[in-house]
Amino acid sequence: MFVFFGIFMVFWLVGLLAMLWVIYDVLTKQKAMPDTEKLIWVIVAIFLNWIGAIIYFFVIKREGKYEGSEPSVI
Length: 74
Fold this sequence. Notes:
Layout: H1 2-28, H2 35-61
Helix pairs in contact: 1-2
């Protein structure tokens, strides 16, 4: 019983850290990302935890989609 609880707590903690990482990265480092896309990624992070973090890594971070580019001002 306690082993199962310990494993569950590890998965919960990893999910929490993954969610916080995505939210932090979206809100602080992705300056050129549109606000609606930021909102979508925050919602994905909250509901999908570590799965959302994996998706975020491969779609945004690995490609460097918004990093290194400044938001365009018209």
